[in-house]
Amino acid sequence: MTLRLLPPTLVNRIAAGEVLERPASAVKELVENALDAGATKIDVILNDGGKAAITVIDNGRGMTPDEMTLAVERFATSKLPTDDLFDIRYFGFRGEALPSIASVARVTITSRTENADSAWSLFIEGGEKHAPEPAAAPQGTRVDVRDLFFAVPARLKFLKSTQTETGYIQEIIEKLALANPSVAFTLSDEKKKRLDLKPVSESDEIKRVAQIVGEDFVDNALPVNAGRDGVVLKGFVGLPTLNKATAAAQYFFVNSRPVRDKVLLGAIKAAYHELLAADRFPALVLFLQIPPEDVDVNVHPTKAEVRFRDAQGIRGMIVSAVRQTLMSSGFRTSTTLAAQALDASVPEPSFIPMRPAVPVAGFRQAPAYRPAAQKSYSFNETRALFKANEAFSAFSAPAAAELPDDTVESSPAVDADAFPPLGLARAQLHKTYIVSQTEDGIVIVDQHAAHERLTYEKIKKNMESGDAAAQYLLLPEIAELPPEKRDAVLKQKAELEKAGFLFEPFGDGALVIRATPAVLGETDAKALMNDIADTIMEFGDSLALKERVKKIAATMACHGSVRAGRILDVSEMNALLRQMESVPYSGQCIHGRPTYIELKLKDIERLFGRRE
User: Fold this and answer.
1) Nearest to residue 489, comparing CAs of 456, 534, 527?
2) In this structure, are 409 and 492 located in the same domain?
3) pTM for the whole structure
4) Do 195 and 211 touch, CB atoms closer than 8 A?
5) Domain containing residue 226
6) Which burial class, exposed, middle or buried, applies to 151 when counting CB atoms under 10 A from its CB (0-12, 13-18, 19+)?
7) pLDDT digits (tens, 9 = 90+) for 218-237
8) Residue 252's CATH number
9) What angle do CA 431, 436, 437 make, to 5 degrees?
10) Distance between CA atoms of residues 485 and 542, nearest Å
């Protein structure tokens, strides 16, 4: 086989295959060029999801005829003033976007600089360039892309429906708009204007976030602002209880460039560890500003990935900053939980057949159907309901056994007319849920989930400090374990003793337990030891020491928590509420579920039709 150099048109089409996956790729490159040109207004117009036509109009600096001619040549760029590929301060530094697009489509570029008497237009078809011609246009640049991929029709087979391709384009523009709040963006197609984002000042960037990510996110977002060694992290992270089924609501930017990076994704996963279920994802918008020489943006053809010089340092900074921000939220939970609860509480309208009534002289036959919610009661049932209502109105729960020491302290005296953040306890329902009254609504607390979080945080703190109190058993207990489990537990003996769990080897297949953590109160020592052994065996040495401590603390917390089915008196319920108000992350249990839901009075009134 004879060696040969490929013709320029074919080289450009190969490059286009790397840079242009779909119409959204072309839009991204063209909009980034407009941003590099200093545009403050960018309009994108589509036809058939960009497959038939894409138009990008900006009010940037514009180009002269000579610059336009050079711009469609491969590797021509104005974004690299030097030859240092590690000092990149612009988007379109590769010089591949326009020639790649022009090699597989019919492209018309019309541009005018500020001081020019007129605009100029350049037409390229499948890589064949025509001579520039005078044109009429305002300052800025307009790029019309027609028949994308006509020169490589095989690529068209891989494109999705018009609606799907339009969605990809909208997602690209939204990301770029988040990173450039002072720029106005519009997106239109043959049906409607899909985006109309007005510019906002830097101090009001939260308004741009609301435009794109939504008001629910803004209402439940916490500001992040941290810096270290020239690296700055800013943005917003959502409360753990505002979580999603996918990572679609996670927006990362490095030097204003939207990216999907494994280091950043891993840092967020670590920051939300113990606060979210494994299959849920937080919502966030984070901007990382880093010296250009410390990040390589040239590792991917579409610049969707980056490589950090100090990846571990960046990861540690993000984890620390986000974790501290979440800790500052205290017991706060997402306001969307109330709406979800109310939506779930509205039953579907349904009717069921009524049993035929016994005919009575002088009365008409009852109607054949009635709403399912209208239940008739016998005399004994009605009397029982009245008695239950009286008992509820004059609530006085049976005296409960004292809760474990060091778990729920006695409730401080509270003025009956002053409501703390989580309210004052009014009742315990189904031996599981605490109902409290707030100043403008009610709070429903899952007692086990809430106390599990409180216990976990205390055990973890004790294990980290190593000064946990131990509760010695009146008689030591023997826990029999298979040799491999016994050996695994003994490897963690020092860490377990820091939590107040004291034991020793007892023969080849057992451990003698002398004390359990005082924070757990009365607990089944054998069952606790078995569960800890299972936890250690499950994760083995795959986790770092700190992570193993957290797993063990979580196992202990399950044993030391107030269980569902435990009767609490009013003082115990209030004590639990006050502790929740003072402990970080108490708005969600260690499995990521909410520990309480707050319903505002206006929401309850709306539920009963008292408010529109």
Assistant:
1) 534
2) yes
3) 0.75
4) no
5) 202-328
6) buried
7) 999 999 999 998 999 999 99
8) 3.30.230.10
9) 155
10) 16
